[in-house]
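Limitations
The structure tokens in this dataset are predictions for the assembled complex, not deposited experimental models. Users should treat interface geometry with appropriate caution, especially where small molecules or nucleic acid strands are included. An illustrative entry is reproduced here so readers can see what is and is not provided.
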Amino acid sequence: MARLTSTLASRIALLVLLAHGVMLPVLFFGLMQVVERNQVERFLEQVRGFAHVVADAFELSDALDSPERSAALLDSAILRSDGVYAELVDSNRTIKSTLGLPELVRPAHQDLGVNQGGDEVYYIMLPLDHAGHRAELWLGFDEKTIKAQVTDARSRILIALGVYFAATMLLALLVGRSLSRPLIELKNRSRRVASGDYAIHLSATTSLREVQELGRDLEHMRGELVGVSQRLRREIEAKEAVESERRSLEGQLRRRHRLETVGTLAGGVAHEFNNALVPIILYTESLLADVRPDGAEAEQLQGVLSAARRARDIVRKVLAFTREFESAQLGPVLLASAVDEALKLFTALAPASIDVRRELPAEIPEVTADQGLLTQLIMNLCTNAYQAMLAGGGILTIGVRVDRSATPPIVELYVRDTGHGMDAATVERIFEPFFTTREVGDGTGLGLAVVHGIATRFGASIIVESAVGRGTTMRVRFPPAGTAVPAPEADELRNAG
Amino acid sequence: MTPTTARPDMASTTSDAARLLIVDDEPDVRGAMRRVLERAGFRVRVAASVEQAIVELKAETAELVITDMIMPKQNGAALITTLRAEFPGVSILAISGGGNFWPQGYKPEAITTSAYLAAATRAGADGVLAKPFETAELLEVIRSVLAARAANPRS
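Predicted assembly:
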């Protein structure tokens, strides 16, 4: 057998088949034996009875004395039965019926049963005695008739057993089917549950108590499973939400920390540079006053002076991007008008390959900001988005989302591009001053640093979502209106060591 | 180096040479400023710290104190406060190169020079100037402070 497993129905059918394979032949041969014996007995009884009738006819008449009458009696014995042989033997003669089969040769002794003598003829001998006249009556009967009857009986039995066997197999199949149907139903249902369809009830329409109990147990298990899996799912979702919130905060914190480090460094370097430039400039100017204005010395000193001025300008630039934020006066600002103003400026610059879309809800709560700075923030975000899409164009979406589930509502400005996107390492650093992924000279590297500075001034946070090749979304989440944003306090200088 | 060596074209507009005290912790800055201001005809003294500046002023007063804002130990704001209290007749010019020395880190609004100078003004300085500056800028601020002083003398 190729398959070691089998279905319930086929297993039952196979067992029934095996049982009948053993039982049916036994039954058949047993039946045949009984039938055969009955037939033979009936045959023997018949022929013996008939032989006695014939013998009586001889003994009660004077036929023995007349050969003609004897022959006539023998003939009638053959005619009135299945006889094939009739003979009368006495001491001085033998009379044989001519109606019998002429080729038959009588054995010396009578047959004791059917199938003896090897001639398919049953011979019986009766001694006759009529008034002292003794003789032997031999009669032969054809055994073929029983054989035909037995064959007939065998075929009837075979048909009956065949019908019985077919009916039993059919019954076995039906029983198997009816046993396996509720099990298959249960199996199908539990498979659907296993594949995630938790709403399926595990039960089968059956009157079999075991299957009903199995269904009840499975249903109980399903209930447990669904409960556990739902609880697990909820826990995992909650954990994931907390985790992503944590990651986001961590990222913000890390970026902020890095900016602080850069800012501290920039401030320190600026201080040192500014101080170092004072003697360079002043001494050079002093020397210039001492030399001939059109001489070679004056020319070289002018060179020192212009280099010092360039150094001064560089330092100023490092610090410039925060300078204007201090003076800004914050107040309630309509975000929509800042967006429109920025878009007006931006669409004039953007190439046709960039599709600019605007998604503003009808009503946006006022945010605490400065109109000019807010416009600059949006412009810089748009410029950054546009530069991410320089290669192949794309869609730039600028919009506002208001989360009214919070009180007061949270207002979020977003700028989304379908540009090249950034990897995590780049996202980490984009707000650093002078950090740029573009070619040197293409842009100042201050655009997003300015965005960060302005957002910080507003007390807003920036969330960056980016995927390489798919684009970037920058979200500026404004603090709830009415939140006091601390103004830069120069008096803190007193604390300086 | 004395005021008499000053060249006529760089001479101060003030009739009698004004006495200046330069307070800065950087010797090069002090030296360079002293050089150009003496050439401009001022009488210049220098101090490397707030303490030294006060000692110098007690020995001899000055019309104008030019002080750096960021110095070790006591900073320019502290000097300005002390001067306003103890030497009310002295005019003050604050100079700063900015920078950020808060131990707690970066403050975008505080790293600029103008924040320091705003603090100086609030503390009572008569004029402010951001480092680095050119000789002409320095002289212009000094002259405007001294002119204001002449027009409205301090008590």
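Some entries come with short summary sentences. For this one: Chain B touches chain A through 46 residues (CB under 8 Å).
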